[in-house]
Amino acid sequence: MRGLAAIALLLALPAIAGAADDAAVRGMLAAGPGATVTAVVDGDTVVVDPAPSGAGQVRLVGIQAPKLALGRKGFREWPLAPDAKRALERLVMGRPVTLAFGGTRMDRHGRHLAHLFTGEGVWVQGRLLADGMARVYSFPDNRAVVPAMLAREGAARAAGLGIWSHPFYAVRAAEPGGLMKRLGTFQLVEGRVRDAARVKSRVYLNFGADWRTDFTVALDGPARRAFAKAGLDPLSLKDKRLRVRGWLRKRNGPLIDASHPEQLEVVDP
To answer: Which residues lie closer than 8 Å to 1 by C-beta, 6 or more apart?
Structure first.
């Protein structure tokens, strides 16, 4: 029964939040200070004044917009990065906003990790996701409204809006040959779990017949505890079709480490 409950909850996460309007999302977060946006750095980072707690830069937590080079040597700008920046500028540049928090409030770079709401009550992250100008990029210490974000991303992806019309951001098949060419990148990968096993303190979800070469999702001890706290059993995901998001790295074949449940979406139970 626990396995069935795990699948049901993973399936329900986006649907539960799909109808949540911006006011409802705001109610799930801790209220923060107000400020005015004085600069837009890129599609997911702004500068505000007055600077809360002395830090003026705000990272729009929970999303990843296409990346600009921003002076980084050898960095290749992602497709549609200027479009994403302009979309954010249209929403907030020169306008009053209110910060809200759903987890850790500062990152190691001294930036606020916040959700933004305009003076009209528009949830900025939600609008960018709904317009296809960003994708969900969540962390285990900042998960308060991720289901609502996944719902909006999913609608934009289904409609082929914004980044979802460009092959750079396509959902990848869980085929090791193609994924090995994209090591070190953030990807959405979709495929069927062929086997699920616990080996010592880790759980592995294998998407192929040979664990030495196939695409794998790995959960360490803290991740297993996060899943258990949410009432989810990752071992019950065998034979289910999943969409997984995260950074690809090599461990035997291509692998994504899953640190929290919202990285996994059941596509076909």
So the answer is: none
